[in-house]
Design brief:
One of its GO terms (molecular function) is electron transfer activity. By secondary structure, the protein is α+β, with helices and mostly antiparallel strands. The protein has 5 helices and 7 strands. The N and C termini lie far apart (50 Å). Bound molecules: 2-acetamido-2-deoxy-beta-D-glucopyranose (6 copies) and copper (II) ion.
Length: 183
Amino acid sequence: MASTINSVHFLTLFVIVTTSMFTVTMANKDWPSFANFNYTDWWSRFGNHNYQINKTQEESNNIIVGGSQNWHFGYNYSDWAIKNGPFYLNDTLVFKYDAPNATSFPHSVYMYSSWKSFMKCDVKKAKMIANHTQGVGEGFKFVLNKWKPYYFSCGEKNGLHCNIGQMKFAIMPMFRPFWPSSP
Ligand SMILES: *[C@@H]1O[C@H](CO)[C@@H](O)[C@H](O)[C@H]1NC(C)=O
Ligand SMILES: *[C@@H]1O[C@H](CO)[C@@H](O)[C@H](O)[C@H]1NC(C)=O
Ligand SMILES: *[C@@H]1O[C@H](CO)[C@@H](O)[C@H](O)[C@H]1NC(C)=O
Ligand SMILES: *[C@@H]1O[C@H](CO)[C@@H](O)[C@H](O)[C@H]1NC(C)=O
Ligand SMILES: *[C@@H]1O[C@H](CO)[C@@H](O)[C@H](O)[C@H]1NC(C)=O
Ligand SMILES: *[C@@H]1O[C@H](CO)[C@@H](O)[C@H](O)[C@H]1NC(C)=O
Ligand SMILES: [Cu+2]
């Protein structure tokens, strides 16, 4: 039963990610007309990570979660994930957040193994992958090295940062599209 639910959501997520990919593609104003279709140009529209065509580069992208917003209370990270996707296998997520001080609250990064506990922000069923201080400086790095859905949230205040604070998002990394050789 649980696995049925999970696979249904797995598919849903996949569709969302795929759809958003095409939304990004279609939203581009200068969508090429089919008469002078340029495949190189077309493929370059996948993702918006400014990939360089670099066959020797095995290392993957570092993606700062939230972009210039970093990892803080009250920013819509689900929205961020949709707008900045798709993400690819071996991409590295970087969570950046300051250490707590007298005037600021701590943050952390938790990972859920199930969609259900992620949806409920059931932090007790999640695993802490970064504590209060690991987001400092260069940030906490996490490599998306498996082809599976990933569910992240902040773990603070028993789910409050996850629920009300919107510090939660899901990602299904994709295989990199075939890349035609550069002209
Ligand atoms: C196709 O697009 C690429 C990248 O924008 C460009 O470098 C190339 O010259 C284009 N090829 C043709 C035939 O227009
Ligand atoms: C390709 O990647 C390699 C290894 O990271 C790097 O040394 C090289 O400068 C890159 N080339 C280009 C054109 O970006
Ligand atoms: C956050 O963004 C998602 C996806 O765009 C949207 O569905 C959701 O309503 C937003 N949440 C809030 C509280 O605005
Ligand atoms: C991801 O990185 C691992 C370890 O470097 C490598 O074995 C694997 O082939 C990579 N996967 C992809 C899809 O690039
Ligand atoms: C506490 O942290 C916040 C957020 O990182 C920062 O803006 C503020 O200057 C810090 N305050 C002190 C007293 O260090
Ligand atoms: C957080 O984790 C780092 C690295 O594992 C460790 O050095 C540090 O003591 C931890 N900090 C707290 C507050 O637990
Ligand atoms: Cu938080």
